[in-house]
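Board notes, transcribed. Complex of a protein with heme C.
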Amino acid sequence: MRLLLAILLLWTVTANAATPQALYSESCAHCHTPGISGAPKLGDRSEWSQRIRPGMKLLYQAAINGVPNTTMTARGGHREMSDADIRAIVDFMIAAAALPKSTLTAAARYDALGITDREFIRLDSNFDGALKPAEIKHDRALAGGFSRFDRNRDGKLDVSEYQALEMQLERERAAVTVDDAQLVAMVRTALRALPAFPEKEVKIEAVSGAVVLSGVVPGAAEARRAWLATRRIAGIKTLDNRLVSGELLAWD
Ligand code: HEC
């Protein structure tokens, strides 16, 4: 009798446990198999080798929390899925890309650093876990604060030094008071200066220095460019980027 019960129990457990592949097919495949609206395509080795570079933790985090301004919403829109399910699906997606061992090792090395600040990682172009002057020279505000915030004087910014610098820049930006209409005009000018940017699609609102960008732009890259071009404008107390990718609308 006890054996029968055990078999019955085992049968129910296995019958209910969907494989990562089945979960993927059910919940993620409609975007990731064709690779629509900028979704990294299943099995696309070069795309996934870029995505994995900051480490698995960040990939899991993106799948669980979503990627802002894209159709990648939290858990691909499946709130019923557990963190463990999502991690198993991401593992399945990575396995499907059959990445070279060297890529997996490099990702694991970055993972071990425990850095999850996406902006820092984007800037860290050689993925060594620190920012050298050459890696931030294109951002004048960061470059200007470098020596002040390299507190241990080792010639690079670690993640806490970088975050302290970003916070200081935000405080300086918010300490300036600019009339809302003028702030809108300044943001508009910054967007207009971006090459091949659909500036007319962007609605800009400012209320007591709280700026909101909204509208539909062709891709997540444009939403990011808009944010990069405006985030340092003095007088902005908070910047809320609600631009969404136009591919969202093409998708039904
Ligand atoms: C509605 C379409 C859609 C669905 C459904 C969807 N994704 Fe995505 N996913 C995207 C898009 C678009 C991106 C690229 C976002 C960007 O620009 O970085 C993405 C990116 C990702 C990434 C890479 C994130 C990074 O940090 O680079 C992972 C991992 C991922 N998805 C996992 C999943 C999993 C797991 C599911 C199912 C539970 C899922 N996605 C369902 C559209 C989708």
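The chain has a mean pLDDT of 90. The CA atoms of residues 64 and 83 lie 7 Å apart.
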